[in-house]
Specification:
heterodimer; A: 326 residues; 13 helices; 75% helix; globular; B: 518 residues; alpha+beta; D-Maltodextrin-Binding Protein, domain 2; Dipeptide-binding Protein, domain 3; 6-stranded mixed β-sheet; 4-stranded mixed β-sheet; 21 strands; 19% strand
């Protein structure tokens, strides 16, 4: 009951925030240099005035800005995101077609980084003054500091070109005609490199954060109490230290989860993964504003949804956080 | 001067030519290649950008094809006659041709495509069609084009990418841009559209009912979509990809890939386009408005260096405004050799005061960025105060469309004839804001306008040649734009892909004749 009210309140706020975001994005994009019609015409390699006028009229770009804004906002209110200028396809269809690939990639990376990060961080915390603990932290630092695109390219060079173990790019093997289980296996193979690449950075952050906050929690009085009452060290670590150390990690996981729609531009580009990040980058280059705004909308919506989820998870992890205050 | 790489290519091309003669073509097999960037659509005429032409040129056809010397070859037209006065062109169409949906291709399709479809949608076809008075189908397989006056390059205008034949029975009376068949293009070509997995691959399959007996040899062509340049190079290296069309990998990767075993390379297959790199110079204001300044820029640039270092020795440093593949080139002109002293003299003569100017590189990848840096250094050597401004494609379009630049890189297609691809850069009635492809530099010269306009419709060719020679002299003196390079855009492929480049548009219609020796 309390949860239901909380969610309702948050959803109501979310709608207002989304509405403001839509308007803000729309206005922001008007400031970017580059007229979509001119860019489309430029791509065509030949353009006369008639061609430009046709394009502007078709996309409603010949209308004053407030008319364009009104059309856009009233469209969104009916979940109509308009047409992509460049592709002539409804924006909603484009996003939906790309969403599964992106969610598969970012979702896998999310789980991978969270699980491995927490495990590695706990191990490092338990081995705080041993070489193995330092080694974990050193590795985490390297992954944290290395640029993503470099990791991506190097992993292709090593695992795909040199060792030949894994495919270098794409979602599946083109022309192989796999179906069913074979297709799933094929996709899984293609997923390994991009998902690992994407996971490394966040994994490093989770590792560092888990270690720090576990060491912090280990100093607390309740841990001394637990130890004094004779609990096994492994239980203390799991039940008392780790659980209390989780809060900052949940915050961070919420942030990472919010980036699941648009956060993999680089990885998707290097690995030719047909996802939303690439679609967004291409839309930006082409000044395909309708498409870009559509993707922004979905990203924003996802961030808001994950904020709400994060708040709920907080109160599950730490019942002291008052539900009403969230 | 030929660099070792260029020599190696010639040798490889020779070896390849002999090998091709020795074997009989085999049928079967699918070729994997790359399309970059992903095209916005595949209906030619509605979309005409380069990637669309490359893929869809194998689905659709025009009336004619062109050799690498730009001589017309039969395609959908079996033969053609030109009247004595150069105003009437009669095309005799091939019989027994069907669209991919089984309907027969007839003269009515030609009339519809030219007179209705392209007139409404296609700016490049429109530029040619303004010379056309009427288009008539005199029977099912004969079409007569009557021109308002002779138009020299008319026979060069029927290439599939420019003048595609589209099916009347699917498009007539519909809103072309919203036509349901746009998702599934129907042409007459050797390959049929099969599938487009957005962001991943475009698959074409063999047209079993193709009208040329035995063609095509291939079962299909898969166009992979790989957005990152380094990943594209890797895909060729690990042999997923058989053919790298020009422009799909960065120039600095080319020598490495070309040196691999079983890799061949050709510079042929771009004669129809003849991409010509130029430096826009703003003729309206600033130091670039002075002819002597523009001449100084020409003398200051070491174009041979750019060719050898940035373009692997491929391509050609042009003499002047007309490229070597364009007709009617005047080769009596004095070349603008690299001559910094002459450049300094000219700058002194005009009293250049060191006013700062900017260069806008073309945002098409590393090679262009480095090229802008090289030119910047050349210009600084002769005392020109110049800085580079980076931008993305959208910003570049906008700046050029608004004439907001001093120097800017670009490249334009020459389309084999000055009236199609060259005059547009210099005609004063082609000055208009909003497009990066017209007379962007703002050059105005009445005599040049006169000569270009007369030459376009002069008849026969000897008349045209006289006029074009004069116009080249004037342009050569005035330097409205900088002439940088005729670009060498090599195609790389596994040597067992035979007979790939057979026309002046290369892989754009090349898979028709290609076969796999595997």
């Amino acid at each position: 009951m309390v949860y239901a009210r909380l969610i309702l309140m948050r959803l109501f706020k979310a709608v207002i925030v989304l509405f403001l975001i839509v308007i803000f994005n729309f206005l922001l994009i008007q400031l970017a240099p580059g007229d979509p019609a001119a860019i489309l015409a430029g791509q065509a390699g030949a353009a006369d005035q008639e061609f430009l006028n046709q394009l502007r009229e078709r996309f409603g770009l010949d209308q004053p800005m407030y008319v364009q804004l009104w059309r856009y906002v009233s469209g969104i209110a009916m979940l109509d995101f308009g047409y992509s200028y460049r592709l002539g396809v409804p924006v909603f269809d484009l996003i939906m077609a790309r969403l599964p690939a992106t969610l598969l990639l970012t979702g896998t990376a999310f789980v991978l980084s969270l699980v491995l990060g927490i495990v590695a961080g706990s191990m490092a915390a338990a081995r705080v003054k041993k070489p193995s603990g330092s080694l974990i932290m050193a590795l985490a630092l390297v992954f944290y500091a290395t640029p993503l695109f470099w990791v991506a390219l190097m992993s292709v060079v090593v695992f795909s070109v040199y060792l030949g173990w894994l495919p270098a790019y794409g979602l599946y093997t083109v022309g192989a005609g796999h179906t069913g289980f074979a297709l799933a296996l094929d996709i899984a193979k293609h997923l390994v490199l991009p998902a690992t690449t994407l996971a490394l950075f966040f994994m490093a952050i989770y590792t560092r954060m888990t270690r720090t906050s576990m060491l912090d929690a280990a100093q607390q009085d309740y841990v001394k109490t637990a130890r004094a009452k004779g609990l096994k060290p492994s239980i203390i670590q799991r039940r008392h230290v780790l659980r209390n150390a989780l809060l900052p990690i949940i915050t961070l996981a919420g942030l990472q989860a919010g980036q699941m729609v648009g956060g993999a531009i680089l990885t998707e580009t290097v690995f030719a993964w047909p996802g939303i990040g690439r679609l967004m980058f291409e839309a930006l280059e082409q000044r395909d504003y309708n498409l870009l705004l559509g993707i922004f909308f979905f990203s924003a919506a996802l961030v808001i949804v994950f904020n709400i989820i994060t708040d709920l998870v907080y109160s599950l992890a730490d019942p002291r956080i008052k539900k009403g205050a969230a | 001067m030929k660099t070792p790489l260029a020599l190696a290519i010639s040798a490889a091309a020779l070896a390849f030519a002999t090998a091709a003669l020795a074997d009989d073509p085999k049928s079967g097999g699918t070729v994997n290649t790359i399309i970059q960037p992903e095209p916005p659509g595949l209906v030619l005429g509605m979309v005409q950008n380069a990637p669309t032409r490359t893929v869809a040129g194998n689905i659709y056809e025009g009336l004619l094809r062109y050799t690498t010397d730009l001589e017309p070859m039969p395609q959908l037209a079996e033969s053609w006659d030109v009247s004595e006065d150069g105003r009437t062109y009669t095309f005799h169409l091939r019989e027994g041709v069907t669209w991919h949906d089984g309907e027969p291709f007839t003269a009515d399709d030609v009339v519809f495509s030219a007179d209705v479809f392209h007139r409404e949608l296609n700016p490049s076809a429109r530029a040619v069609l303004q010379h056309v008075e009427s288009i008539e189908a005199t029977d099912d397989h004969t079409v007569v084009f009557t021109l308002t006056q002779p138009f020299g390059p008319f026979l060069l205008s029927f290439e599939a990418g420019t003048f595609t034949m589209v099916p009347e029975h699917l498009y007539a009376g519909t809103d072309f841009r919203d036509n349901e068949h746009n998702d599934h293009p129907i042409g007459t070509g050797p390959f049929k559209f099969a599938n487009w997995e957005r962001g991943t691959v475009i698959e074409l399959v063999k047209n079993d009912d193709y009208y040329e007996e035995g063609l095509p040899y291939l079962d299909g062509v898969n166009w992979h979509i790989i957005p990152d340049g380094a990943s594209r190079a890797v895909s060729f290296e690990n042999e997923t990809i058989d053919v790298l069309p020009s422009g799909t990998v960065e120039n600095f990767d080319i020598p490495r890939l070309a040196a691999m075993d079983n890799v061949c390379m050709t510079e042929e297959g771009h004669e129809y386009f003849s991409p010509f790199a130029m430096l826009w110079m703003n003729n309206r204001e600033g130091p670039t408005a002075d002819k002597r300044f523009r001449q100084a820029v020409m003398y200051a640039m070491d174009r041979e260096f750019a060719k050898d270092v940035l373009w692997n020795g491929l391509g050609n440093v042009p003499l002047s405004a007309f490229g070597s593949n364009a007709r009617f080139q005047n080769d009596d002109l004095e070349p603008y050799d690299h001559n910094p002293d002459r450049a300094r003299e000219l700058l002194e003569e005009m009293g250049y005061d060191g006013e700062e100017i900017t260069i806008l590189p073309l945002p098409y990848g590393e090679t262009w960025t480095r090229w802008a840096e090289a030119v910047q250094q050349n210009l600084r050597e002769v005392g020109i105060n110049v800085s580079t401004q980076a931008t993305d494609v959208g910003g570049w379009n906008q700046r050029l469309g608004d004439w907001d630049y001093d120097l800017a890189f670009t490249y334009l297609f020459q389309y084999g004839d000055p009236a199609l691809g060259i005059s547009r850069t210099y005609l004063s009635d082609n000055i208009a804001k909003g497009s990066p492809w017209n007379n962007v530099e703002g050059y105005e010269n009445e005599r040049v306008d006169e000569l270009f306009n007369e030459a376009a419709t002069a008849f026969p060719d000897a008349e045209r040649e006289k006029l074009y020679r004069e116009v080249q002299e004037i342009l050569h003196e005035d330097v409205p734009v900088g002439w940088l390079m005729e670009l060498g855009f090599p195609t790389l492929y596994r040597c067992d892909v035979q007979n790939l480049v057979t026309s002046g548009v290369g892989v754009n219609d090349g898979f028709k004749d290609a076969w796999l020796d595997r």
